Amino acid sequence: MIQLTAVTTLFGAASAAAAIDAGLLGDPDERVLVISNNAPIPEVVRSLADTPGAEAVLSRFDRVVDLGALLHPQTPSRWKVFAIDLPAQERLLRTYFELGDSPVELVVESVHVPPAETLTKVFNEARITILSEGLMSFGPTRNPQSHTFGQRLDGMVYLDLVEGLDPLLLSEHGIESHAIAPEHFRRLIEEICVAAQVPAVEDPAPTALVLGQYLSALRLITPQQETRMQVDMLKAAKSMGAERVLFKPHPSAPATNTAALVAAAGKEGLAIELVNAELSAEAVMATHRLVGVVAGFSTALATAQRVFGLPTRCIGTRVMFDALDPYQNSNRIPVTIIDFLHRNADREDAIDELRRLTVAVAYTMQPDSLADRRDEAVAYLEGLPEAERTRYITQARLTKLGLPGGRRPVLPPQVSKAAHDAMERVPPGLSKSVYGSWRKLANARQQRA
Prior knowledge:
alpha/beta, 5-stranded parallel sheet, 12 strands
């Protein structure tokens, strides 16, 4: 049996390597790491295999093959295959990957997007193990998968970033999930730092790490809002005792308005330094003595706290709850988890409460695939104060799904009177038509919510 592990980032490759170290990915005859570059412009981004320190991760595999090199100039993130071409594509990949006729099993990340989605279709008889997607693994399946696909699943391995919280991804197929203990992942990060010759740093001043995301690039918020959010992160870093800030933009983010950040840092009396783009946030945590880590709702916040034992602060989660559109946006679960944990850090029952909240939010995101969790969602929402309920779930969504806290749509009084007067003036036979038109408009507004 040959095990193909497909990853697009060093973080994903390190997660897979940590799972191997933990004994969670079996004992195949050969392990092949399939890498691809999903950057918007892959030509200007270094290949995963050439990233400093990557050899520490690659050593867990027998061979490394580059899917992007085969597909070029098509990018792996857009690679799709017509059903009639699947047999030919499998023959091509078997030749290119030197698989022969050996049976294959797959370890893949995001099964709902290429290249992982396409690989599962090309090798349509392969058993599948899902590799964690960070905090998104605790949310529902973005695109429902067929029963046939579910029958091929052997389980999921995921980073144990929130102790006691179980993944919901693909749970509708009854798969088993296995946690990668934090110490295995930390050991991998430390090995990467040694291989990349990243030295341990003793900062002379109390230092905090501030992590950017790429929210405006995703059109979730405006660039101005994102800049204000980052300025608030600097203030939060100062409140944690920092005199110096290391700012790391997200790898996929466009050019950041660093001038505004430098000016804001100066006003706060903070020294600021941009982190080398090739140094991961986890590597900074492993090699610097930090007073804390500040971000929006990044998975790195959970990593900082759970893997490296660092204090953390989150900024802007309230804004993000309103900004996530459509409602089913997969970022809703990471925002929920990070927001709740930071607001309830001192509660002894925080994880039990978070588990129930996550199920409720996930149900409202994907009520069809998680239909069997409705009773849990209803029971939890019934006992939740309205302010808490509407913080995490919009009023429109509660109404649409008929959940506790939802309201029947009511027209403003002036509109109701106008509608009533209009109904009085039209012939009786048209009354239902007028009412039907109103209902269509109301339903369309709920659908948009």
